[in-house]
Amino acid sequence: MGLNFSAYNTDEIIDFLQEQVKDGIVKTDKDSLQTASYSQNLPGQHGLALALVEAGSIADVQGVMRAARRFHLPVVSQNRFTSTVVGADAVDHAIILSTAKMSKILELNAEDAYAVVQPGVINNDLDQAARKQGLFYAPDPASKKMSGIGGNVATNAGGLSGVRYGSTRDNVLGLKVVLADGRLLDLGGKTSKQAFGYNLTQLFVGSEGTLGTIVEITVKLLPLPLGESLMGLAYFKDMHTLAEATKDLRMSGIYPAMLEAMDSHTLQAVSEFRDNKEMAGRGAALIFRVDSISDEGKQIVKNIMDKYHVTDVQLATDPAEQDKIISVRQDMLPAIFTGRSAVMEDMAVPTSRMAELVDTIQALSDKYPELEIFTAGHAGDGNLHPTVTWSKDAKEMPESVNIVLHEMFTKALELGGTISGEHAVGMLKNQWNNVELGEDVDWIQHQIKSLFDPMNLLNPKRKID
Known about the structure:
Elements lengths: L9 H11 L4 E3 L2 H8 L13 E4 L3 H14 L3 E4 L16 E4 L6 E5 L4 E4 L5 H9 L3 E2 L12 H7 L6 H4 L6 E7 L5 E5 L11 H5 L8 E8 L1 E2 L6 E7 L2 H13 L6 E6 H11 L9 E7 L4 H13 L4 E5 L2 H12 L1 H6 L2 E5 L2 E2 L5 H14 L4 E3 L1 E3 L4 E2 L2 E5 L7 H16 L18 H5 L1 H14 L13
Parallel strand pairs: 2-4, 3-4
Antiparallel strand pairs: 1-2, 5-6, 6-10, 7-11, 8-9, 8-10, 12-14, 12-15, 13-14, 13-19, 16-21, 17-20, 18-21, 19-20
């Protein structure tokens, strides 16, 4: 069903919104609307919102839904506005519904190892609060210091430690969700097992705000690992060798918590960014971490490094030294984005096919010299983030960018993978639904959308189109 935009008077709409929003704020000034309507650094289609609502309560969210239905207005949900796929940009006449101000940890139960949080709680803040109780929150996206749990759930965000601890989906126990008609659903609970009904909790995880607005989340917490944690930075001659070593580490029985890969282009960029030649000219690098490692585990790591003739390896058990190692990964994005325009992609393939995808990306980089492509990602689960860059001096994005993305997507699917591993679909990739899912599954997806949102008001043009 297409959108049927309101013909009502704008003042009438705003007056009604303000009546409905008791605990939050309704903003209609131009600066606020422009700032909230679109992300400056992402290409995509966007419009200008009619109003920005910073919700302060579940009742506020329900009030926004009442206004949307009454005036036939789209609702675009935002949390911390960190989407990389134009997932939270406005469409014209939309109400932007921000849950960022709903940012309380409502309960942290150390005995049963769970937490109940509002959607605006920052990922890292929850993790730090849990650590004070001897626990931790496992999902750790690169944006964990600024992204909210609500946005993480809506996109099923992954993270650096996903190879062992899973993505957000694997750590959600329950949700409270406001539907398009204003009803509040209470899904899941505080136990890891529940057999009644269909698993609607997991349906909403990764739904990108298209089925309802997440207003409360119950997540599981894990005990902090005992003993030493070993982190390493190992340099390989190329990504093929790195991929083989990664496979051996995964299958060795030591259960790595982190396996992060960077290709030679990425290492060169980080080297220049740091003004440090240590990484320049290296073929590929793997940052790995093993929690609760034994002496036997350390020997296994050493044997694998020897087997693949690692050119250099730094190992650390001291937290301060580990911070130095992980800072290489943290410097990656500023190194790539400084002085360049860029599109960062998100594909996942079976780990045994990862090197083949890297070969395709390298060939495309050679074929289109006006572009630079930097490839890094989560080697432990085959989730790569090739970043296609071009000169900031260009007035428009080169057409070759679209050609390269199309060929990368096609290759990822050919290898049995996906073109969206952990960054969601948003508006950038929804036209690929039919290609990746097939017509029958795509049809079912639209039926689910129609069931929960028959007026097609929630996050239009996202996830499915």
